[in-house]
From TrEMBL:
PROSITE patterns: BRCT, DNA_LIGASE_N1, DNA_LIGASE_N2. This is DNA ligase. One of its GO terms (cellular component) is cytosol. It comes from the Bacteria. The gene is ligA. The lineage of its organism: Bacteria, Pseudomonadati, Acidobacteriota, Terriglobia, Terriglobales.
């Protein structure tokens, strides 16, 4: 037994004693709420209240550091899951990778592998480093039971419903197939979820057209997509999944990583084909160099190469440091960037009138292409960069994505520029005053006849989902607008065969086809014409609701903001945008001309039930009996309205499983909370 040291009695000051009691009481309270939230899923207080309690505890502990104990709730890392997503612990930690940036660092890594393993004949597997987010898929009896995000590596979020919408994820694999692949019935596949570059561009353009904020890169878009509460949104966004690990009971199953990849492929997973089993670092280096040259030809983005020790036994020997394995390393490609001079800034006007600052650059070669223009996004970004004309800037380019100005470069060879530039007060094309809606980053020109908007507007109007005028693509629209034959969408209906025949590469037959297409477009339903007007924030779906609610363009034109908000999915911002559009005389004139041209200007008002007339609902959590769309339709068919956030105006909150902050808010405001059955009863 250790000899007892003499006890020094050091009385605790009264103030510390009081603080100790307070701290313990607070911890008890927080633990109780954590249990209610995480374990029982029955929170009694709002997120804000919970955060306040936690902050009080943190402040007290900061004042009395001697009272901090390892079991205090402040010592636990992590936060609450977002509403609708349940936190799930991983079977074994989902690790990250250490990075290397040049050949020397890579060779140093190899040397460490040799030293630690005592071997020099190590095989490696080279894979592409896909620029998405990692995801774990759990299979039981060959069936997909759960998809979990990486989260903090130990605990992720259950995104199963969303993952099920990804086409390359097998939902069920039959026993025989698994047996042939040598995979057990219960296993876990881990890999990368990503958005192909083409889908990224298309979806971002669509968002841009509909006046929604765009995503900076496919990775952010992927993360935003997999965490959608509404899985039908995920389904539309075409994600892809490439697995690269296979675990059983939280451990690597096969003896070699190469075997894992082959087995996953045999089982029907989309394993990335651009992989290689190599026997030396020279071969690794060749693989890295080859793919650096070819990366632009891939349909998705990569940011490097991952090198993994092939043998599992050797992997186990090498083990981990912190959060990364010693048996794998990432070689990161340098962002494809170049330094050049910012010569000017011009303002580009899009279809919705949004003004985007475009940097005009001294031509610079980046990754095989010459870059002359790069986006500066918006005024906020310009302020963040602090950029001036004449500055030297670093320009970055990723895959198909538009080049962007990443930062200002300043040293003795690259002196600063001096010319500042500001957001023009008037549209650079038509001189109409530029407007910035409160709370928004973007400035817009609101003149429907703005020439810069014209081309984009006409292309949108003629596109398949709108007036479906086949043949009216970019080449034709450019000629029509350049020659002044089409000055607004109504002019399309005034075009004659002679007009068309006067254009380049236009024969009699093509001209007649286009006229026929134009004629046919007149018969399309009212919602198409509404969508075609290009009102900001009015996409295809909103146009449909507006047509069903008002039944005519005339009624829509005359509607005030209040009435507009009675339409499904139309909130104050969309209503304001519609009112603003119709308040501009040029826009009203345009509609008159479309009416004169005989476009469909009336439709069938949708006869909706009246049981829920005037009632506003909010759906929250995961519904069990209906999909969100079905529930919404049920409410809307009965005359009710579904909105996204709870306010005093909300009549009912329909709470499904895992309802979180919206439920708190409803309780706070005293809004009636009902379940799906009750919703069904109310809707009749
Ligand atoms: S292996 C323990 N292989 O890169 C090893 N990761 O920077 C961890 N990634 O979180 C992952 N392609 O999201 C691995 N072929 C690949 C990968 C890959 C992309 C991502 C993954 C990981 C991140 C680490």
């Amino acid at each position: 037994m250790r000899p007892l040291s003499p006890t020094i009695i050091c009385p605790m000051p009264a103030a510390t004693k009081d603080a100790g009691k307070k701290i313990e009481a607070l911890r008890e309270k927080i633990r109780r709420h954590e249990h209610l939230y995480y374990v029982l899923d029955q929170p009694e207080i709002s997120d804000t209240e919970f955060d306040r309690l936690m902050q009080q505890l943190k402040d007290l502990e900061a004042e009395h550091p001697s009272l901090v104990t390892p079991d205090s709730p402040t010592q636990r890392v992590g936060g609450k899951p977002r509403e609708g997503f349940v936190k799930v612990p991983h079977s074994s930690p989902m690790l990250s990778l250490d990075n290397t940036y040049n050949e020397e660092e890579l060779r140093n890594w190899e040397r460490r592998v040799h030293e630690l393993s005592g071997r020099s004949d190590v095989d490696y597997v080279c894979e592409l480093k896909l620029d998405g987010m990692s995801l774990a898929l759990l299979y039981e009896e060959g069936k997909l039971v759960r998809g979990v995000t990486r989260g903090d590596g130990s605990v992720g979020e259950d995104v199963t419903l969303n993952v099920r919408t990804v086409h390359s994820v097998p939902l069920s694999i039959d026993r025989e197939k698994l047996r042939k692949a040598g995979i057990p019935l219960n296993f876990e596949a881990r890999g990368e979820l990503l958005m192909p570059t083409a889908a990224f561009r298309k979806l971002n353009e669509e968002r841009e057209r509909n006046g929604l904020p765009t995503f900076a890169n496919p990775r952010n878009f992927t993360a935003g997509t997999v965490r959608q509460l509404d899985s039908s949104v995920t389904a539309q966004r075409r994600l892809d999944f490439f697995p690269y690990f296979l675990l059983a009971n939280g451990r690597t199953y096969f003896e070699r990583h190469w075997e894992t990849l082959t087995a996953l492929e045999k089982a029907g997973f989309k394993v990335n084909p651009n992989r290689k089993l190599v026997h030396s670092m020279d071969e690794v280096w060749r693989f890295i160099q080859q793919w650096e040259e070819k990366r632009d030809s891939l349909p998705y983005e990569i940011d490097g190469i991952v090198v993994k020790v092939d043998r599992t036994a050797l992997q186990d020997e090498l083990g981990f440091t912190g959060k990364a394995p010693r048996w794998a390393i990432a070689y990161k490609y340098a962002a494809r960037a170049g330094i050049t001079k910012l010569e000017n800034v011009r303002w580009q006007v899009g279809r919705t009138g949004k003004l985007t600052p475009v940097a005009e650059l001294a031509p610079v070669a980046i990754g095989g292409t010459t870059v002359r223009n790069a986006t500066l996004h918006n005024m906020d970004e310009i302020e963040r960069l602090g950029v001036k004309i004449g500055d030297w800037v670093q320009v970055e380019r990723g895959g198909d994505v538009i080049p962007k100005v990443a930062k200002v470069v300043e040293d003795k060879d690259h002196p600063r520029g001096h010319k500042t530039f500001v957001m023009p007060e008037k549209c650079p094309e038509c001189g109409t005053k530029v407007v910035r809606t409160e709370g928004e980053v973007d400035y817009r020109c609101v003149n429907a006849n703005c020439p810069a908007k014209l081309r984009e507007t006409i292309l949108h109007f003629a596109s398949r989902g709108v007036m479906n005028i086949d043949g009216m693509g970019e080449a034709l629209v450019n000629q029509l607008t350049d020659r002044g034959l089409v000055k607004n969408v109504a002019d399309i209906y005034k075009l004659t065969k002679d007009d068309l025949l006067s254009l380049e590469r236009m024969g009699d037959k093509s001209a007649q086809n286009i006229l026929d297409e134009i004629e046919n477009s007149k018969k399309l339903p009212l919602e198409r014409a509404i969508y075609g007007l290009g009102i900001r924030m009015v996409g295809e779906r909103t146009a449909q609701f507006l047509a069903e609610h008002f039944g005519s363009m005339e009624a829509l034109e005359q509607a005030g903001a209040e009435e507009l908000q009675n339409v499904n999915e139309v909130g104050p911002r969309i209503a304001e945008s519609i009112v603003e559009f119709f308040s501009i005389p040029a826009n009203r004139k345009l509609i008159e001309r479309l009416r004169d041209a005989d476009l469909t200007m009336t439709g069938k008002k949708k006869e909706r039930g009246t049981k829920l007339a005037g009632k506003t609902f909010v759906l929250t959590g995961t519904l069990v009996r209906y999909t969100r769309d079905e529930a919404k339709k049920m409410i809307e068919d009965a005359g009710g309205k579904v909105t996204g956030s709870v306010s005093k105006k909300t009549d009912y909150v329909v709470a499904g499983v895992d309802a979180g902050s919206k439920l708190d808010k409803a309780k706070e405001l005293g809004v009636e909370v009902i379940d799906e059955k009750e919703m069904e009863r109310l809707a009749g």
